Amino acid sequence: MNAAAAPVAAEAPQKIKHARLKGDHIEIDEKIQFAVNADTILSSSDSLLGEIVDTIKENPQIKKIEVQGHASSEGDPGRNKTLSDLRAKAVVAALVGRGVDAKILTAKGFGSSKPVADNNSEDGREKNRRVEFVILDPASKDAAAAPASANKQKAAGPNDTRTP
C-alpha cells in the first residue's frame, strides 16, 4: 500500500511554479498582464499574483521588496515613466489586497531607462515591458554578513603570524 501512495505524492509537485526566489529577486517566468496603455491588471494574471504572494509568505526573511515597473522605448518617455510607476503601484496594491504586508513593499517606475533587451526589435521591446521584484532587505544576507566579518576578525588575531 505504501508503494501505491508514493506516486500520488510525487504527482503533486509537478505543478509548474511561475514565481520563485532567486538571489535578490523574485523571478517570474511569465508577465503580469495589464490593459493597453493603463495600469489595470488583467484577471489572466490572478494566478501569477497568487504565486508571487505565496513566494513572499514562504520567505519571511524578506523584509523589503521594490516592485519595479519597466517599459519599452516606444512612445513618449515621460508617459512611459508615469505608466511604469502606476503599474508598479497597481502590483503593490494587488499584493497587499492578497495579504502581503504593505510595509515591506515599495513601488518604482523606471520607464525605458533600464532595458534588458534591444529596443530596435518587437521581441526586444516586449522583453523590456516588465515588472521586476527586487529584494532590498533580505534578512538572511544581512545576518550572514555580520557574523562572517566578525569571524574573520577573530581568526586574524590569534592566527596572525606576522612579525612586528
Automatic annotation (TrEMBL):
Domain of life: Bacteria
Keyword S-adenosyl-L-methionine: no
Pfam short name (any one): OmpA
Keywords assigned by UniProt, alphabetized: Membrane
Domain OmpA-like: 22-139
Region Disordered, residue ranges: 110-164
Biased composition (Low complexity): 137-156
Gene Ontology CC, one term: membrane
UniProt keyword annotation of Metal-binding present: no
Bias type Basic and acidic residues, positions: 122-132
UniProt-recorded name of the protein: Outer membrane fibronectin-binding protein
Source organism of the structure: Labilithrix luteola
